[in-house]
Amino acid sequence: MSRTLPLKHGRGLRPLSIATIAAIPLALVLVFFYAPIEAEEGFLQKIFYLHVPLAIVTLCGFVIGGLLAIVHLRTRDRQWDLRSYVAIHMSLIFGVGTLITGSIWARGSWGHWWVWNEPTLVSFLIVMLLYATYQPLRFAIEDPERQARYASVFAIVAGAFVPMNFLAVRLSSSYLHPRVLGSSSNLPPKMAFTFLISLVAMSLLFATLCSYELTAKRTRILLKARSRTLGFR
Amino acid sequence: MAATVGALLRKELLVELRTLESVPGMSLFAVTTFVVFHFALNQNTVSGDEAAGILWVTLLFAAMLGINRLFVADQDQGGFDAFLLAPVDRTAMLLAKAIALFAYLAVLELVAVPAFGLLLLAPPLHQALPDMLVVLVLADIGIAAIGTLVAALAVQTRARDLLGPLLALPLLVPVVIGAARASSPLLVLTRAGGHVDPPQVRWLATLALYDLVFGLIAYAVFDFLLED
User: Fold this and answer.
1) How much is the ipTM here?
2) Of the candidates A130, A137, A156, which has its C-beta nearest B171's C-beta?
3) What pTM value is reported for the model?
4) Domain residue limits, chain B
5) If you average pLDDT over residues A22-26, what whole number do you get?
6) For chain A, which residues make up each domain, given as ranges?
7) Chain A contact for B167, CB < 8 A?
């Protein structure tokens, strides 16, 4: 349990929120008024600035959840398990967004809601299916200490699974379908800049939402502890 | 360490031999699934990608039955408590269980692969056999490592029968990709006396990398599942 004072909870939330509130409109303005219209896909390509940052933030969130879980198992401090849980929980929400925007993009440019020959999309679905079992696993264990420990083990295994899975799926189709937009390095400078700002905005949004959830959870734990010491039920 | 693993493995195989709870069920499940595939696909013989897919889906689901039962006796009858009381390395449990699961899978395949050759496979089985053995061994190591880890995770939960397969299936997708792609060129129909292409090295390398990575990860995290 946390021994910190309630005032320390939520420290840094205000600057983080302000930065996010500033960054998201800035990114949107750049996407719609600064970045050039792509020659082949036209206006539809704008979804790239939403979909790809969402996907990158989601995958980084999953891996960060695994790293935080390693810290939890090493230090035995439950705070790290809470952080790992929040990172994975938020990544799951962002991941649903990634799948929806990816599906819309696929429908727009290839005419199908789902395409199997896009290895990144397929790998992403497999990763999401795996992480969808994180919460059922976690909340099927009653003992809170064991719950934290088992959830951490899952987070580590799944975090290592993310790159392994991308490698296997990419291998299974790379020779048939070379990728056009493989990395941002071959983008024109205006697009690359817009993409970078969108990525920063999305990362800020992720960090802000994570700290809100973390603060809410800590406050609730603290409230429960206080009401117990005061004799409330 | 080796003595502990040996003792645990002996107990594991002895329990299986006396109760026959896992392996006969897994083998029967595999053979029945081939029959189901015959009717579901409405085909008498299969070859190539289709054959590799049917074989690996069947083996994977049959393996799931064994994975689900792997720690149930230890959990229900106090095997974990007894093991934790003993002054031995906890990793011995992982090794013994993984070797036992590997042995179950080997027996399963000893039944299921010939049955597949007999019931569904169009080309003769012997043309695929020497290379197929390599694929089977590499895939079984991965299934045994992840299967043991997932079984230990799931056995402590309320919905263990449900969570085991739900956790294991996505984790084993890379194994299925590697194993199915490696075995499909072995199962194509060739002209009489023709030779099949050997499996592509990149699929065997994928399987070997998976075995290595998840073997090490299982080794690193397994101790944390056995504390109380």
Assistant:
1) 0.89
2) A130
3) 0.88
4) 2-226
5) 93
6) 43-217
7) yes
